[in-house]
Amino acid sequence: MEKFKVKEYIELLEKEELINEVVDCDDILDKEVNLVSFNSKEIEEDTLFIVKGASFKSEYLQEAVNNGTFVYVSMVKYDVDVPYILVNDIQKALSCLSAMYFNYPGESINVIGVGGTKGKSTTTYYIKSILDEYSKSVNKKETAVISSIDTYDGVENFESHITTPESYDIHRHFSNALNSGMENVVMEVSSQACKLNRVGDVFFDVGIFMNISEDHISPIEHADFDDYYKSKLKMFANTKNAIVNMDADLAANTLAVARRDSARVFTFSMKTKDTDFYAYDIRKDGFNTIFKVHTPSYDEEFMLTMPGLFNVENALAAIATAYLMDVP
Predict the structure, then answer these.
(1) How much is the mean pLDDT over the chain?
(2) Who is most buried in 217, 263, 276, 297, counting CB within 10 A?
(3) pLDDT-derived band of residue 224, with 50, 70 and 90 as boundaries?
């Protein structure tokens, strides 16, 4: 993996207008950074350390320095004798520095983001299933996944404990997937991930907005519904092909934001035919749901073996994604 110099990381932070002060870095500007990390337990020689977390203590930084950290990035100065860079937003700094450290792996892999209050997990796995079947038929690797259920990137495979991980971890998973020969990754995108810039340097080839309803409203996450909704809408700014559920609440406003911020926008519905993808002739057959789907180039009948009419919405999002990714 290509290594970058301290001055290159500083230049990136300057470009993003994140720097407040650079202190005692003149003698290390041309020094290569071996590792970027925000975990004081995982430090190597010549580490650029990123200080984050409300409960962070100066002894953690001293431990990192003892183990190889030679410069740190923080929002506040610590009484530790190494050069440092003060920034105005540590989450944004972590995001852009992580992307650079892993050499922007997301630019070389297809990234599909699934946002919304409900249906993210189901839609994510519908998409992964479709892409896996297609990849198998053309002798390519399976699809990486980052979800609230589990995470798999070709190297790491574990049960997840958070919907969307920290930005550093996202780019690490992208890097693992790319180095494993994978071409696609599908991930759930939470409102917190958007609000806290975990996906600030993630660019989605396909970004899906499933729906919106009141959830995660608390002093810890979102103060009110407006903050929650606006946080979710941030995904469109980094999306090439946006897919919007026109049956969802506030669909007209969501569509307007998608059209303003995304390169291209596609719509789907179970209720109206005035969309790019729509389901019709929906019927139950025992525990199965059978329905037809109209797309810009074909009409086909599909069957879901999972009960629940809402799963037709999830399936429509997956079908639209497959269409945009040229899956036959």
Answers:
(1) 95
(2) 276
(3) confident
pLDDT score recorded for residue 308: 86
Half-sphere exposure of 45 (CA within 13 A, CB side): 1
Return the amino acid letter for 75.
Answer: M
**Count of positions (residues) in the chain:** 328
Residues with Cβ within 8 Å of 124's Cβ and at least 6 positions away in sequence, in order, are: 114, 145, 147, 186, 187, 188
Are 279 and 291 a contacting pair, CB within 8 Å?
yes
Gap between the Cα atoms of 270 and 293, Å rounded: 9
For residue 118, name the pLDDT band (cuts at 50, 70, 90). very high
311: pLDDT confidence band, cut at 50, 70 and 90? Answer: very high
How far apart CA 142 and CA 78 sit, in angstroms, is: 45
Query: Among positive and negative, which fits the CA dihedral 171, 235, 186, 161?
Result: positive
Phi/psi for 56 (5° steps) reads -65, 140
Distance (Å, whole) CA 311 – CA 236: 23
How many helices (H) and strands (E) are present in the chain, helices listed first? Answer: 9, 16
List the Cα angle 188/190/192 in 5-degree steps: 150
278-283 — which CB contacts under 8 Å span 24+ positions? 278/316, 279/312, 279/315, 279/316, 282/309, 282/312
The rounded distance, in Å, linking the Cα atoms of 269 and 299 is: 15
